[in-house]
Amino acid sequence: MSVNKIDFKMNQGKLFYLAPDDLNKIFEHFKSRGYKVIGPTVVDDAIVYDEISDVKDLPVGVGDEQSPGIYRLKSRDDGAFFGYVVGPHSWKRFLYPPILTLFEARRENGNIKISECNDEDVKFLFVGVRACEISAIMILDKVLGGGQYVDPVYIKRRKNTFILAVNCNEPGGNCFCFSTGTGPRALAGYDIVLTEVILNDKHYFTARAGSDQGEEVLEDLGFREASQDEVKEAEKILSEAPNKFTKRVDLTNVVEILQSNYENPLWDKIAERCLSCGNCTMVCPTCFCHNVEDVTDLLGQVARRIRRWDSCFTVEFSYIHGGSVRYSTMSRYRQWIMHKLSTWKNQFGMIGCVGCGRCITWCPVGIDITEGVKSFKEVLNKI
Ligand code: SF4
Ligand code: SF4
User: Fold this and answer.
1) Helix, strand, coil share (%) of the chain residues, nearest 5
2) pLDDT class for 4, splitting at 50, 70, 90?
3) Residues whose CB is less than 8 angstroms from the CB of residue 243 and which lie 6 or more positions away in sequence, other chains included
4) Spatial separation of the C-alpha atoms in residues 358 and 279, rounded to whole Å
5) Which ligand 1 atom lies nearest to the CA of residue 136?
6) Cβ neighbours of residue 200 under 8 Å, at least 6 residues apart?
7) pLDDT of residue 302
8) Which of 131, 142, 143, 138 is nearest to 182 (CA)?
9) How far is the CA of 131 from the centre of ligand 2 (A)?
């Protein structure tokens, strides 16, 4: 069954009040039911998604600074649990694993024994999912879970995932989800969404259910309803967030503009700094390209067919009987942007970018997708 059939409610229902430690009650609730709790945590000076067990594992009092090609953590003096934006990881790595054994062939007593995909049965509680990331998951739902051919591993993992989202109060330096219409407030696609309020000496969350399961959790754990003042305080913070974006881009007609400028020399200019490293595709929460490889052990006893994330920035990715169809870096860069912002719409009815800004932060030379779009618009305005 397609994951698109999951029924999420749009923002409705009452708001609950949670003290910071109440998040642990939610973690325990899911742990006792066999879920892995996956959330943001600090590893090697970056905020990544990993297994956590307590609110103390969150990046408490940690913020981040992001600009093209730059990422660094900084201390905050307010003890915020979610005072940073997205890092190098996305939830894709848990729903669509970077490496997956599709099947294994093993010699046994003169016969060949085939074992099918080894994917474990796992249930996830995702903690701190941002609005842009929910949109990215919904895009993957369409790509991997919709249509005639679906990815059974993705569907199984997705159906066993509970999304505890958090609204963004402070967009980062490379965030532009307001321009893509995918944030900063989560409107749908979550089971529970939190808003973090830190005001004077108060620190609390408001929580709203977005699914029946989310509603059951909030009711079963006995949280009280938020007071009118608490609702107002949270709403004020959320309504101010859109004004804090420093990066904006007008995406009107971007699909048509790119498609009608396939041979424009501007592509060479934009791509001349590109190293073809593929970082942008690895960190992007919606990129789904992969390669399939066969590997054998040295004794010839075991062979495995493996699915591994790949990138349209590698020459081999477009290899077709005798050669690659995208030898130049420019052609690979153009393919990526054209797909994200244009032909994706033809395939899936939406663009493939949610404005998370990861590709801008993690590009070693700081190439900025929003500046690329602006350059095309400027050139066309002058014609
Ligand atoms: S293209 Fe860049 S900004 Fe858009 S979703 Fe991917 S990583 Fe985020
Ligand atoms: S745009 Fe940046 S991150 Fe992407 S392949 Fe080129 S150099 Fe690497």
Assistant:
1) 35, 25, 40
2) very low
3) none
4) 9
5) 5
6) none
7) 96
8) 131
9) 25
Determine how β-strand 192-199 pairs with β-strand 161-166.
parallel
Atom of ligand 2 nearest to the CA of 363: 3
Q: Compute the distance between CA of residue 165 and CA of residue 332 in angstroms, rounded to an integer.
A: 34
- Distance CA(249)–CA(247), nearest Å, equals 7
- Ligand 1 pocket check for 369: Cβ under 6 Å: yes
Report the CATH number of the 9-99+120-244 domain: 3.40.640
Average pLDDT score over residue span 198-202: 93
Is the CB of residue 351 below 6 angstroms from any atom belonging to ligand 1?
no
> The tokens 């959330």 sit on which residue?
39
List, for residues 296-318, the tens digit of each pLDDT value. 999 999 999 999 999 999 999 99
Q: Any idea which ligand is nearest the CA of 362?
A: 2
Evaluate: CB of 285 within 6 angstroms of ligand 1.
Answer: yes
Closest CA to 193 of 143, 134, 146, 236: 134
140 C-beta closer than 6 A to ligand 1: no
Q: How large is the C-alpha radius of gyration of the chain?
A: 22
Q: What is the DSSP string of 24-54?
A: HHHHHHHHTTTEEEEEEEEETTEEEEEE--S
Pairwise CA distance, residues 54 & 21, whole Å: 9
Residues 201-206: contacts with CB under 8 Å, at least 24 apart: 203/20, 203/78, 203/79, 204/17, 204/18, 204/19, 204/20, 204/230, 205/17, 205/18, 205/19, 205/20, 205/22, 205/23, 206/15, 206/16, 206/17, 206/18, 206/230, 206/231, 206/234
Distance CA 63, CA 125 (A): 23
Ligand whose nearest atom lies closest to the CA of 372: 2
Where residue 78 falls (left for φ over 0; alpha for ψ -120 to 50; beta otherwise) is alpha
Q: What is the pLDDT of residues 88-137, one digit of tens each?
A: 999 999 999 999 999 999 999 999 999 988 788 999 999 999 999 999 99
Domain extent listing, the chain: 9-99+120-244, 254-289+310-382
Place of tokens 């694993």: 97
37 close to ligand 1 (CB < 6 Angstrom): no
Placement of tokens 């509680």 in the chain? 125
Report the separation in Å between the CA atom of 177 and the middle of ligand 1, taken as the mean of its atom positions: 10
